[in-house]
Write a structure and sequence with these properties.
The complex is a heterodimer of chains A (499) and B (518). Chain A is mainly α. Chain A is 73% helix and 5% strand. By secondary structure, chain B is mainly alpha-helical. Chain B has helices at 6-22, 32-53, 83-101, 110-129, 133-142, 144-154, 159-188, 193-201, 205-212, 220-238, 247-254, 257-289, 291-310, 315-337, 345-383, 395-398, 400-414, 420-435, 437-462, 478-496, 499-515, and strands at 62-70, 75-81. The chains are: A mainly alpha (499), B mainly alpha (518).
């Protein structure tokens, strides 16, 4: 059933490429496909009583290599599929005004979403990799054709970073496949195989970095801000909201389950670091603080949000590296939370503000009375900003709280770093909000006449705010999916070794 | 356990009201004020019913609601009130309609204004009823956002900087509070206030810290002190205690006066409430270990703010400093209650008196201070926004009724026997004196200086030669008279029958004193 999320998206993309379809119907078809995908997910969610792994489709594909077409979902994939569905709908609503080659735009958009669904639902590593690659191509075109500031550069940078990351992942995958006897690519089977420890010691970091590039792992994050900024609104929503989660998902789902011993101590220390676990937690914390500090000094509104994504994804990686239940819960929840909130922030900046004012310079925006001209955008931004800095009641709080609790027992020193990161995040959110919407100084006499916020935008914003609020007030919905998933045999190695 | 979820409904009423007001169409925007008033009266009626059904002979938590929420995080939906909670609910339910009635200055974006006020009330109700940190913290922070926007969007010329200061100070306090509670959760696995306080009483808190939080250079007592420091900071900013008070005068002066009523009448009580509900029952050994410095802080708060009030020229700033001063007495009572008394009956009685006084003072101050700011709002409405100490003179002759009623409120603030302010302060001094004579004696200076600046106001504004500019100032209208006579009546009622409040809180205080004996 859930497999239809993938098929519907690709089908939608195909339909949009048919010559007979009028361009004006494109957005409607895209919305229909996005809603259908979401509906399928919800019905799938209602049927699964718990978050344990359940196979959806299982066919042989390339028998000689032991590669199978195997789709399966556990709680973590369900949660991310749900996120994808929500962001996909909102993304269409926020690109309602696309006129330029709209058929191609939405076709690529749906292809990207189909690829993302595919990654989250694959239980065969080869299949997962194929979908992972499928997702790269539409990203490139979405930015290169419909993007703004330095779009060719940004698109190329993003594609290159993604491809380098994929190459690293692929090398390790092939090595692992060979070492495990070249019989199977099944995630579960590989995760049960005891790889030699010295192999895991180099395979793990290579693969973690390979996936981590897409998750904005510092110092390999630089594609993210430029890519987010150059992308058209819907694409930045998907990039920050969902595509970055592909990386984090890969880290958790493949790197950490296949090579759990790669996290063991090396037996010696370098600069106080004694294992890859220490190294990556340190990088995560640096990402949190660095992203926040850079966001604090940006002049371009969209760059503020772009760097804030790097900072918030640092929490995901830190949560993964705590290797305890509560930290992992937090990491997965943070993926959802950041997905929703980053999408909302990009929607406000890219669609509500930039499409109306045609500038993203904070200095220029501060002269425009935006809180009076487009109050809805101001309110939405304030809600999104306070939610993302961790205001209780919104999803960011429960997610970061759990990461912090987990980190508190794993690396108390990291909590201090993360705490500093949160403090700076308050500052940059505050600064952006003041400058863009509530500035008093240097105002022009009258508020500019801007087109009012349209209905699709209102619906889109409402969807995302409600999602964040629902998770913030009752995270148990999602935790009921995540907790059983972490008990599955897939995480055996990690559980035995570390928690 | 009561069957009917009274407290949830009570919190939901203002929330629904806020949403209803936001949903008013453009054509009916003028109904926002009326609608807000209606909802706040419904909330008031509910709290009165709650009072009626409250069993004041028991100091235990009543009307409890307990549901699982996020088991893995130790978060539960746990509500309940004892005497302290009920008094705070009554106060909030009273101050909010007063503030709405006083908000005639608010002439733009009324829908947003009144819905924010009701959001704030929901935040207050939630804070005063939640018993699980997770749940409580949501409301604690929820109240911050509407307050910020009320100050920012409707405040005076320097409201941007006031709102920012308010937000930054409280946010820093909140982060400290959050980190402290994360550490506590790490050690005990629970966010539940009653459970944490039970752990503290049985002396298991420090061993739990020793078992779970080993920072090599600190011993467990020091870590406990550090955690206490975090919570202390969180609440000290809110009360505020010197030297964390600097946000307050600017904020109170710049906020629209009706909002200041809410800030001083109800929100400032959140800090003292936090001390009574959370800090005292959980961290009393830690308070005890640094009792002398804490008492110094309280005394400094009392004395310095009184002198600062004396130096002000703006009525709102005077009352702002006077607020700090009055809550300083509360802090004195709270800290002294943590001192070690064991089973000595006379000392236990002193602590009971001090805590009785603290809660009574919270209620009284909420009532009196918001009434005083209301009078300032009425005065501003007549003077075109002027509110300087020297802008007036001889008003007694022009607006005698206004003068009389505001005089009563001023004397109540000064602590005149027969009015409400007296009993609370008297009980605090009665309790503090035997336990810490020096602190009580020094704090007396505060009382003295308060008398001076209150009398100065009476003299400069209402007596003396009439400032001709105001010779046509209209006196209170009948509606206004009726409205302000409610708090004035309550001042008399409480001054003469303090038992009204003491009856509610007595059992609670006795239980609290029992908890922090050893």
């Amino acid at each position: 059933m859930l497999a239809w999320t993938i098929y519907i998206s690709f089908l939608g993309a195909l339909v949009l490429m048919l010559p007979g379809v009028p361009p004006r119907a494109a957005r409607g078809i895209a919305l229909l496909a996005a809603i259908a995908g979401f509906a399928v997910t919800v019905s799938g969610l209602l049927r699964t009583a718990n978050g344990a792994m359940a196979t959806i489709v299982h066919r042989s594909w390339i028998p000689s290599l032991g590669i199978e077409y195997h789709l399966a979902a556990d709680g973590i994939s369900l949660l991310l599929v749900l996120l994808t569905g929500i962001v996909a709908i909102a993304g269409v609503l926020f690109s309602w005004n696309i006129d330029h080659r709209s058929k191609e735009f939405f076709a690529l958009y749906l292809a990207l979403i189909g690829g993302v669904y595919g990654v989250f639902l694959s239980a065969d590593v080869f299949l997962l990799f194929v979908f992972y690659e499928i997702a790269i191509i539409p990203k490139y075109f979405l930015i290169a054709i419909w993007g703004s500031t330095r779009r060719e550069y940004a698109a190329m940078k993003l594609a290159l970073y993604s491809l380098v990351g994929s190459a690293m992942v692929l090398i390790v995958l092939i090595a692992a496949y060979v070492i495990a006897g070249a019989k199977t690519m099944s995630l579960l089977a590989l995760s049960q195989f005891q790889f030699p420890v010295h192999f895991q010691m180099w395979a793990f970091p290579l693969m973690f970095v390979g996936f981590g590039i897409l998750a904005g792992l510092w110092p390999f994050h630089t594609w993210a801000p430029t890519g987010h900024v150059a992308a058209p609104t819907a694409a930045s929503m998907l990039l920050a909201g969902v595509v970055m989660k592909l990386g984090a998902y890969g880290c958790l789902r493949v790197a950490m389950t296949l090579f759990p011993r790669g996290l063991d101590p090396w037996g010696f220390t370098v600069l106080g670091l004694a294992s890859w676990n220490d190294v990556f937690s340190l990088l995560a914390v640096i990402g949190i603080v660095y992203g926040a500090m850079v966001a604090l000094v940006q002049q371009d509104f969209k760059f503020v949000v772009g760097y804030s994504s790097v900072s918030h994804m640092g929490f995901v990686l830190l949560g993964l590296m705590t290797l305890n239940r509560i930290g992992l819960n937090g990491a997965v929840l943070q993926m959802f939370s950041h997905g929703v909130l980053a999408a909302l922030l990009f929607a406000v900046v890219g669609r509500m503000v930039y499409d109306r004012t045609h500038t993203r310079e904070l200095a220029a925006l501060s002269k425009m009375h935006l809180s009076k001209a487009i109050p809805f955008a101001a309110v939405t931004f304030v809600l999104a900003a306070i939610a993302s800095i961790g205001m209780p009641g919104f999803s960011g709080f429960v997610a970061e709280l759990q990461v912090l609790i987990g980190a508190w027992s794993a690396f108390p020193i990291c909590v201090v770093g993360a705490g500093i990161g949160i403090a700076i995040s308050v500052a940059y959110a505050w600064r952006a909000m003041q400058k863009a919407f509530f500035s008093d100084t240097g105002l022009k006499d009258t508020a500019p006449l801007l087109p009012p916020i349209s209905m699709p935008e209102r619906f889109g914003a409402l969807t995302l705010v409600i999602a964040s609020l629902a998770v913030g007030l009752y995270p148990q919905w999602l935790l009921n999916l995540v907790i059983p998933a972490l008990n599955s045999p897939l995480f055996d190695g990690l559980r035995k070794g570390h928690w | 356990m009561s069957v009917f979820p009274f407290l949830s409904v009570l919190t939901a009423v203002p929330l629904i009201g806020a949403l209803a007001i936001l949903g008013l169409g453009d054509k009916r925007r003028d109904r926002a004020r009326i609608l807000a008033l209606v909802f706040s009266f419904v909330a008031l009626a509910l709290t009165l019913i709650l009072w009626h059904r409250f069993d004041s002979t028991s100091g235990e938590l009543q009307f409890q609601e307990l549901h699982a929420w996020i088991p893995s995080l130790g978060a539960e939906y746990h509500l309940g009130i004892d005497g302290l909670g009920l008094v705070m609910l009554l106060l909030s339910a009273l101050v909010v309609p007063m503030s709405i009635a006083a908000s005639s200055q608010i002439r733009e974006r009324e829908r947003l204004y009144f819905s924010l006020v009701l959001f704030l009330q929901a935040g207050l109700f939630g804070t005063f009823t939640a018993l699980n940190f997770f749940h409580w913290f949501i409301f604690w922070e929820l109240s911050l956002i509407p307050a910020f926007f009320l100050i920012r969007l409707w405040g005076g010329p320097r409201s941007a900087s006031a709102a920012t200061q308010f937000f930054v100070y409280t946010m820093v306090g909140s982060v400290a509070l959050l980190l402290a509670f994360l550490a506590l959760f790490q050690c005990t696995g629970t966010f539940d206030f009653p459970r944490l306080s039970a752990l503290a009483q049985s002396g298991q808190l420090v061993p739990a810290i020793a078992a779970h939080l080993a920072w090599h250079r600190f011993n467990p007592e020091q870590i406990a002190l550090l955690i206490f420091g975090g919570t202390f900071l969180g609440f000290a900013v809110k009360v505020p205690i010197t030297p964390f008070h600097t946000w307050l005068p600017l904020t109170y002066a710049e906020a629209p006066t009706a909002t200041t009523m809410l800030l001083t009448g109800a929100m400032s009580k959140m800090g003292v409430y936090g001390f009574l509900r959370i800090v005292l029952p959980i961290f009393f050994p830690q308070i005890r270990s640094v009792l002398t410095p804490l008492l110094w802080l309280a005394v400094l708060t009392i004395v310095l703010s009184a002198f600062a009030a004396l130096a002000q020229k703006d009525l709102k700033r005077i009352f702002a400093y006077s607020s700090i001063n009055h809550l300083g007495y509360c802090m004195l009572g709270v800290f002294v209650a943590a001192s070690l008394t064991g089973d000595a009956a006379s000392l236990t009685a002193s602590k009971t008196a001090a805590l009785d006084g603290v809660i009574l003072q919270m209620f009284n101050h909420g009532l009196t201070a918001s009434a005083l700011f209301w009078f300032v709002a009425l005065l501003e409405a007549r003077s075109g926004g002027l509110r300087g100490l020297n802008d007036f003179g001889g008003l007694r002759r022009v607006i005698p009724i206004f003068t009389g009623l505001m005089g009563i409120a001023l004397f109540s603030s000064l602590g005149l026997p027969g009015l409400n302010g007296f009993i609370g302060e008297f009980l605090i001094f009665r309790g503090v004196f035997p336990l810490s004579t020096w602190a009580a004696s020094l704090a007396l200076i505060g009382l003295l200086v308060t008398a001076i600046f209150i009398l100065t106001i009476l003299q400069r504004v209402f007596s003396g030669p009439l400032n001709e500019r105001w010779s046509n100032m209209p006196d209170l209208t009948v509606t206004e008279r009726l409205a302000v006579s409610v708090p004035i009546g309550l001042m008399f009622a409480l001054g003469i029958f303090p038992q009204l409040v003491l009856g509610i809180i007595n059992s609670t205080v006795i239980r609290l004193v029992q908890q922090v004996r050893y």
